[in-house]
Amino acid sequence: MNSFNFEPLALPEQTAGLRREVREFLREQLAGMTPRDRAHTWQGFDAEFSRKLAEKGWIGMTWPREYGGHERSVLERYVLLEELLAAGAPVAAHWIADRQSGTLLLRFGREEVRRRYLPAMARGELFCCIGMSEPNSGSDLASIRTRATRIDGGWKINGSKLWTTNADKAHLMIALVRTSKEEDSRHAGLSQFIIELSSPGVTVNPVVDHTGAAHFGEVFFSDVFVPDEMLLGNEGDGWAQVNAELALERSGPERYLSSYRLLEELVAAAGADPSPRITELIGELTAELWTLRQMSLSVAGQLAGGATPSLEAAIVKDLGARFEQELPPLVQAALDDEVAGASGTALQDVLDYLLRASPAFSLRGGTREILRGIIAKGLGLR
Amino acid sequence: MNEQQRMLADTVERLFPGIAAEQRGHGAPGDFSSSWERVRELGIADVLVPEEAGGFGGNWQDARVVMHACGQHALPLPVGETLVARKLLCGTDIAAPPEAAITIAACAEAGVTQGAVTLRLNSVPWGGGEACVLTAFEHEGTDYFALYDTAAATQRRARDCAGSEPRFDVVLDESALLASCRREHARRDLLAYGALLRAAQTGGALQGALTLTIAHVNDRVQFGRALSKFQVVQHQLALLAEEAAAVSCAAGAACLGADSGDAELAIACAKLRANRSVHQATSIAHQMHGAIGFTREHALHHFTQRLWAWRSDFGNDRYWADSLGRMVARGGASNLWSRVTG
After folding, report:
1. Which residues of B touch A3 (CB under 8 A)?
2. Fewer CB within 10 Å: N-end or C-end of chain A?
C-alpha cells in the first residue's frame, strides 16, 4: 500500500492550443517588464493587467457562464496559471478572487450574493482578500476572537485581522469569525462572512514588510454591519469550509514557482557552456522544478476528478516552499566571476529581491510546521 | 491506474511479499530458482514484450507498477532488470533467453586484446552466475548490445555494498559471450532505461522504508508514549514521506514520458531526484528506528542498502546533474520553461 496518491497526469491535448495562446499574449503584454518586477509574480499588483486577462476570459475560467465564468476545465485553468507564473505576470489583483473567493461563493454563497459579486470578479474589477489570521491567532487559527453577533437583519462584526494580503486594495474580504462562545467548541463556533471593505466601521492599515513593500495589512472591524445574506454557508460550518479552501490554496503552481525567475536568469547569465559547478546546479534545480511540477499536476488532476487530496496538497506545498527558499541561497553560493553581476544586472537584482522575500514562502498559506502536522496526520501518526 | 495496471499491481502484491520472505529465509540470496519459476509463469518480466512475441504488450506505465513493487518489497530477484533487458532486446538480433533471469549493467571499460573485446562491468547485481548480463559498449565507432554468462566471467570480485542484492565486479571476454549485435544508441538506451528502472525502484523502496518506519514509531514506546506522538518524530516522518512522494511521482511521470517518446529530460530529472532523496530518506529511516533498525535481523537494511547502491547505478548525482545542466544551458533561458512543460 502506498501512503499517498501521486499518479502522474498527462495534460489533455487540447490544452496545448491554450498554452500557445497564453504565451503569445504574455509576450506582448509583458514585453517591457523588468526581471525584478517579474520576480514578484503573484505579489505583483496591476489592476489594468487583470482587466486585460479578464477580457480574454481568463479570470473565473471554470465558473458557470451565468455568473460571468467561461466553463473551461480545471486543467485548462492550471495551464493558464503556470504560464502566468513562469512569465512573472503581475496577477496579484485578481489572484485570490480567482483562486478561492469565487469558488467559495459558488459553493456556499446565497444566489443573490453570487449574482452580485461573481460577474464583477470575472471582469477583473472586484478584488478579494482572505481574513483568517489575527494578532493573537496565526497557526492556531481556531483561536480567533473576531466575533459576529446577530442583530436585526444581519450581523455586527467586531475585531481585527492581520497579515491580510492586499487588504488596502481589495473590495471584499471573506473572513472567518466566531459566531458562538469559544467554550462551546473551538471549531463549531466559527462561520465565514463576506464583508465589503467599504462598509462603515472598517479601517485598513498597510503593514510594511522587511523588504519595504506593503503587500499585507491589518483590518479593524468596529460594529461593522453585515446583512444576513453575507453569511457564507451555514452558521458554524466555517472551520470545515476554511479547510476545504486551504486545500485549494496549497497545491497550485504558485507553491513552487515563486523563485523560478532566478533560475531562468541564472541560465541566461551562465550562457551555453557554464562551469561544472553552475552546470550541476542548473541540473539539480531543473530536476527539482520538473518533479514539483509533476506533483502539482498530479494533485490538479485529482482535484479535477472531484477528490480532496489534502495530504498530497500539504506535501506539494512543503516541498515546493523548500525549493523556492533554497534556490536563492544556492545560487548565491555558487556564483562566481563568470556569471556574477553588479546591481543592475538581472541576475543580481532578482537574487537580491528573492533572498529577502523568500522567508515568507514557508509562512503564507500554512506554515511549514502546520503542514508537517497535516502530513503526519495523513500518515496515521496523530 | 487503469484496469490493466490495477491487475498487474494485484498480481505482484500477491506474489512479491511471499517471495521476499522466502528468499530472505533461506539465507542464500543468489539462489532464486524456485521463486524465479513463479515470476516466469506469470509473465511479470515480459510486461514490455509485444504480444506477438509472447509478452504482455504493455507500456512503461504498466512496467512502472512492477518496478515500483520490486523496490517496495526489496524483491531479491532481478525482475526489474529482466523486464528492461527484454525490452531493450526487442527488435534486435539477440533473442532474449525465455527462461533465464537477465541483469543489466553499464560497461565501465571496453578494451580490445588480440582482436577480441574484453569488458569490465562494476557492481553488477546478481552478476555472480545467478543471471546473465546485458550490457552495451562502443567498438570502432559502433554501439553494440552484448549478452554474457556471468558464471563464465574471467574475473569476478564480490562487492559488499547492497546486502541482500548480491553484486559483483566482473571482467568478461569472448568465452563468456552468449550473443551480441550492433545497435544504434545501445549505450544511451541502456543507461536511460536502467536509470528509469532505478528511479522507479527507489520510489518503491522509499515507500517500503516509510511503511516500516511508520509501523515502528507507532509501536515503540519511550517516555510513556508511542514515538509517533512526539512532534519531532512526526515531522521527520513527514519529510521521509515527502521524499517518497517526490520520487514516486517523478518516476511515474518519466514513464509517462517514455511512452510518449521524448523522455530524455524526464528520465534525467527522475533519476537525479531519486538519487538526491537517498541520503535524507535513509538517514531519517535509520534514525527513527534507533539501534533496532541497525541489526541484520530487522528488515530495514533490505531497503536502505539497496537505495545506497542504486544511487550509483546508471548515473550518479554528478552524472545526471551535469547532463541535465548541459541540456538546459545549451537550450538557453528562453527554452527552459517549454522544456519543463514539454
Report:
1. 207, 210-211, 214, 241, 244-245
2. N
